[in-house]
Amino acid sequence: MTKYIPVITRGYSRKVPVDDIMYLEQRQRKLAIVTGEETYLSYQRIENIEQLLDERFYHTLKKLVVNLDKITAAKDQSIIFQNGEMLMLGRESYVRTKQIYAAYLKNLL
Protein backbone atom coordinates (compact mmCIF):
# COMPACT_ATOMS: atom_id res chain seq x y z
CA MET A 1 0.00 0.00 0.00
CA THR A 2 1.38 3.39 -1.01
CA LYS A 3 1.79 6.01 1.72
CA TYR A 4 1.16 9.68 1.05
CA ILE A 5 2.09 13.01 2.59
CA PRO A 6 -0.80 15.50 2.57
CA VAL A 7 0.05 18.92 1.13
CA ILE A 8 -2.60 21.51 1.90
CA THR A 9 -2.23 25.15 0.90
CA ARG A 10 -4.62 27.97 0.10
CA GLY A 11 -4.27 27.24 -3.61
CA TYR A 12 -4.53 23.46 -3.68
CA SER A 13 -4.67 20.23 -1.75
CA ARG A 14 -2.95 17.08 -2.92
CA LYS A 15 -1.22 13.96 -1.70
CA VAL A 16 2.42 13.28 -2.54
CA PRO A 17 3.53 9.62 -2.59
CA VAL A 18 6.25 8.99 0.02
CA ASP A 19 8.14 6.93 -2.58
CA ASP A 20 8.55 10.05 -4.75
CA ILE A 21 10.08 12.25 -2.04
CA MET A 22 13.82 13.00 -2.31
CA TYR A 23 14.00 15.18 0.78
CA LEU A 24 12.08 17.41 3.16
CA GLU A 25 13.44 20.79 4.18
CA GLN A 26 12.03 23.20 6.74
CA ARG A 27 12.23 26.71 5.28
CA GLN A 28 11.17 28.96 8.13
CA ARG A 29 7.43 28.37 8.56
CA LYS A 30 7.05 26.39 5.33
CA LEU A 31 8.01 22.80 4.66
CA ALA A 32 9.48 22.04 1.23
CA ILE A 33 8.60 18.54 0.05
CA VAL A 34 11.00 17.92 -2.82
CA THR A 35 10.44 15.21 -5.42
CA GLY A 36 12.38 14.55 -8.61
CA GLU A 37 9.92 16.68 -10.56
CA GLU A 38 8.45 19.29 -8.25
CA THR A 39 8.80 21.12 -4.94
CA TYR A 40 5.68 21.52 -2.82
CA LEU A 41 5.53 24.18 -0.10
CA SER A 42 3.14 23.76 2.79
CA TYR A 43 2.66 25.31 6.22
CA GLN A 44 3.68 22.21 8.16
CA ARG A 45 6.41 21.24 10.60
CA ILE A 46 8.97 18.63 9.65
CA GLU A 47 8.43 16.93 13.03
CA ASN A 48 4.79 16.22 12.20
CA ILE A 49 5.58 14.69 8.81
CA GLU A 50 8.39 12.47 10.14
CA GLN A 51 5.77 10.25 11.78
CA LEU A 52 4.52 9.30 8.30
CA LEU A 53 7.96 8.27 7.01
CA ASP A 54 9.75 4.91 7.17
CA GLU A 55 13.35 3.76 7.73
CA ARG A 56 14.48 5.00 4.30
CA PHE A 57 14.34 8.56 5.62
CA TYR A 58 17.21 9.99 7.67
CA HIS A 59 17.11 13.24 9.65
CA THR A 60 20.52 14.55 8.62
CA LEU A 61 20.10 18.11 9.92
CA LYS A 62 17.61 19.77 12.23
CA LYS A 63 15.73 21.08 9.20
CA LEU A 64 16.53 18.39 6.61
CA VAL A 65 15.33 14.80 6.13
CA VAL A 66 16.66 12.83 3.15
CA ASN A 67 15.35 9.70 1.43
CA LEU A 68 18.29 7.28 1.33
CA ASP A 69 16.68 5.46 -1.62
CA LYS A 70 17.00 8.59 -3.77
CA ILE A 71 20.70 9.22 -3.06
CA THR A 72 23.15 8.04 -5.71
CA ALA A 73 26.39 9.21 -4.08
CA ALA A 74 27.87 10.86 -1.02
CA LYS A 75 31.14 12.66 -1.71
CA ASP A 76 32.97 15.94 -1.15
CA GLN A 77 30.67 16.92 1.73
CA SER A 78 27.65 16.60 -0.60
CA ILE A 79 24.89 14.14 -1.21
CA ILE A 80 23.80 13.65 -4.81
CA PHE A 81 20.30 12.56 -5.72
CA GLN A 82 19.07 10.50 -8.67
CA ASN A 83 18.03 13.60 -10.60
CA GLY A 84 21.51 15.14 -10.24
CA GLU A 85 20.55 17.62 -7.53
CA MET A 86 23.28 18.12 -4.95
CA LEU A 87 23.00 19.22 -1.31
CA MET A 88 26.03 20.46 0.59
CA LEU A 89 26.30 19.47 4.25
CA GLY A 90 28.47 20.63 7.10
CA ARG A 91 31.42 18.39 7.95
CA GLU A 92 29.86 16.63 10.95
CA SER A 93 26.47 16.18 9.29
CA TYR A 94 28.16 14.84 6.16
CA VAL A 95 30.23 12.28 8.09
CA ARG A 96 27.14 10.99 9.94
CA THR A 97 25.04 10.93 6.78
CA LYS A 98 27.76 9.13 4.81
CA GLN A 99 28.00 6.46 7.54
CA ILE A 100 24.22 5.98 7.62
CA TYR A 101 24.11 5.82 3.82
CA ALA A 102 26.94 3.23 3.70
CA ALA A 103 25.15 1.06 6.28
CA TYR A 104 21.91 1.44 4.32
CA LEU A 105 23.63 0.26 1.12
CA LYS A 106 25.11 -2.77 2.91
CA ASN A 107 21.63 -3.76 4.10
CA LEU A 108 20.39 -3.71 0.49
CA LEU A 109 22.78 -6.52 -0.47
Automatic annotation (TrEMBL):
Q: Which InterPro entries match?
A: LytR-like (IPR046947), LytTR_DNA-bd_dom (IPR007492)
Q: Which residues form a coiled coil?
A: none
Domain of life of the native organism: Bacteria
Keyword set for this entry? DNA-binding
> Pfam families recorded for this chain?
LytTR
Q: Which SMART domains match?
A: LytTR
**Keyword Nucleotide-binding found:** no
Q: List each copy of the HTH LytTR-type domain by range.
A: 11-102
Q: In Gene Ontology terms, what is one molecular function of this protein?
A: DNA binding
Query: What is the protein named?
Result: LytTR family transcriptional regulator DNA-binding domain-containing protein
Species this protein is from: Candidatus Fimisoma avicola
Q: What is the lineage of its organism?
A: Bacteria, Bacillati, Bacillota, Clostridia, Eubacteriales
